[in-house]
Structures are given as structure tokens and as C-alpha cells.
Amino acid sequence: MAAPLPWAFLDDGFVPLAAARISPLDRGFLFGDAVYEALPVYAGRPFELERHMARLARSLRELTIAAPCSDAEWQARIEGLIARNGGGDQLLYLQVSRGADLGRDHRFPSGVRPTVFMMCSPHQPPTAAAYAAGVAAITQPDLRWGRCDVKSTMLLANVLARQAAVAAQAGEAILVRDGQAIEATSSALFIVRAGAVATTPLSHQVLPSVTRAVLLDLLRAAQVPVAERAIPVDELFAADECWLANSSREVFPVVRIDGRAVGDGRPGPVWRQAFELFQRHKAESWERPAACAAPGAGPALRFPARFPIKVMGRNAPGFRDAIVALVAQHAGGAPEVGERLSENGNFLALTLTIEARSQEQLDALYRELSSHPLVSLAL
Q: Residue 151 and residue 39: Cα distance in Å, rounded?
């Protein structure tokens, strides 16, 4: 697994990952009292961000953890972390716990602030050769808790099943409960019989996978027959094709289950169609305008040019004046300043419009803003 990228987000700001510290009394550490998201980033753009944020909001509601910020603030934090880690292709991990109390008590604490943590790793989907070869899977009993639809950090049963797959030299474990194939340890499950696709219906036993939802939309738009229904284990072994899908490995074919070949033991034609539909959808996503980009990204400017710079930080005394002074120093004059408070009043967003004279001037300004202790985000 690739080493994480150097910048993280913790509670209110960006910090070097190596310096991030969370209390040992945090309920995520003590009880698994936390939820998470893992979302892919392509060409500096978070993929299907709205769906991931909707699932995160649902997980928080189901566990009655207070939402730590607004959707707009989530977007600013996510895109700011992506930019600080250099853009490109990343896999972003986001976790929210109920917070840290003064001691260890099963009861929910009162007046405790949720802990927010985010980090990124380089995103490396399987190679073309790996997709062509497919993966082996094993079946394992589904020993997870009764609310698998909540994306919580209580993943010990998943970890043990995945390790059983590793010991069997397989790429995944498909979880079985009451004679039905449910999903894999970290992947949605699809099978194909006679050209028709089936996937397990959503319930408390199944995670509402974002990649699954995207694939269902794409397949239906392409008029591929799709059913959301139970998948008996016998049908799993009799399938013409089997695929697994998640944010990191996208949609990948399973060619053997418990040592038995799936179909003819090679990735099938319906998988290939689904794979190509997904890749096309990704490419279309890259073409959409990014809400934020690293300094210097995007079309080249013609200088001189009026150029807006957006800066966000804690609404603390001195923040506005310090940032205006810094920008004026680089711009050679006072910028035009617009400002907007966040909904809870904790953050202040400034839009400072300057006359940009060169790319070197802008790069120097962004470098100084990005390292400023009062700045949470510079766009």
C-alpha cells in the first residue's frame, strides 16, 4: 500500500500528517464510535462528491453524531486537502468520531465536539494487466453487526474475513449470511447470468456503495438488464460472471470463487461493458470545472489580469487585516475585498481581487498564503 501523502486535516485546520494527534479518550478509538468515507480523486477532482457527502450525512444521523460542518465547509476542506497534497489522483479518507470525553463511559457524552480527521494517499487503481487477469475470491460467514448500512469504523469482522482471503491467496472475501451472498469485505457484489446483472438489494445488511449506485445508473442508461435481488450462494457459483466494485479498485472481475472457475475463468463481456461505461463516466467527470485547484492549475492567464484569490480561515481577531496586508504586499497595492461568514460564524472567507502581473507573482503569493498559520484554505 502506498504511503499517505504529507498533509492531513484535523478538527479545524490542515496539519502535517506526521504531526496529527488525537486523544486516546476519543470514542472512535475506544468504541469504534465513528463513521468514515473513502472517496477517489481523479485529476484533482473528488469523484461523486455529492453522493459521498449524502452517505456521510446519513451515517452521522443514524449514529446521532452531530454534523461537524456544512456541506460547503466539507467541500472547502476536502478540496483544500487535495490541493495541499498536490492534486492528481488520490484516495481521500475522512473520519468523524463522536469526540473525546473526560473518561471511558458507554453512555453518549454531552457537550463533546466531534473529531474530524482526513488524509490522502496516492490513488492507484489496478493495472490493465490486473483487470485482464481478474481476482480470486473466497466465501466467508458474515459475522458483522446488524447495521452494515452505516459506514462505521467497526470493521473487525471485515478485517478478519479479508485476512482469511489473504491467507488463501485470494483478493477478496464474499460474505455469506443465511444462504445468501451479501457483499464482500469492502466491495459491492454483482453477478451476471444470461446477460442480466444482479446485485444484492440495499438493506441493513448492505452498505449503500457509491460505486454500486454509479454502476447501476450507467448500466440502466445503457439498457443492460439489471435487478436488485437476493443472490443465493448456489447462484453465485453458477454465475456466468462475478464482479466486485468499490472506490479504490473501481469495478473488477472475479474469475474464481473458493477455487472454482466463474464462467470460463476469464473476465466476461458484460463486465467489460460495465468497466468501459465507468471509465467513460470518470473521463466526463474530469472535464467538469473544479471548484478549487492547486495554484497554477487551469488555463494560462494573460497578464496583466484581474485575478480573484479566495482565502478562508478561523474568524479570529486579526485574520482579515493580516491577510489583506499580505496580499497587498505581493500585489503592490490594496486589493478589492469581499467577505462572507460561515453559517456558524466560525470561519471567514475573503475574496481578494488583485491585478496579477505574472505567474511567478501568483505562485509566490499562494506559497505564502498556504503556509500562513491563520489560513485554512487558499484558492
A: 13
Cell of 329: 504586499
Residue 95 and residue 34 in contact, taking contact as beta carbons nearer than 8 Å: yes
Domain over 128-283 is classified CATH 3.40.1000.10? no
In this structure, which topology does domain 305-378 adopt according to CATH?
Alpha-Beta Plaits (3.30.70)
Return d(Cα 45, Cα 262) in angstroms, integer.
35
Q: Where are the domains of the chain?
A: 7-122, 128-283, 305-378
Catalytic (active-site) positions: 151
Question: For 182-230, how does the pLDDT look when each residue is reduced to its tens digit (9 = 90+)?
Answer: 999 999 999 999 999 999 999 999 999 999 999 999 999 999 999 999 9
How far apart CA 367 and CA 330 sit, in angstroms, is 11
Compute the distance between CA of residue 125 and CA of residue 248 in angstroms, rounded to an integer: 6
Q: Which segment of 217-221, 265-269, 294-298 scores lowest on mean pLDDT?
A: 294-298
Q: Would you identify the CATH topology of the domain 7-122? A: D-amino Acid Aminotransferase; Chain A, domain 1 (3.30.470)
Amino acid identity at 128: A
pTM: 0.76
Instruction: Kindly state the DSSP code that residue 19 receives in the 8-state scheme.
Output: G
Domains 7-122 and 305-378 alike in fold? no
> What DSSP string describes 57-70?
HHHHHHTTPPP-S-
Which DSSP state fits 351?
A: E
Instruction: Kindly write down the DSSP assignment for every residue of 291-349, as one continuous string.
Output: S---TT-SSPPPSSEEEEEEEEEE--TTHHHHHHHHHHHHHTSPPEEEEEE-TTSSEEE
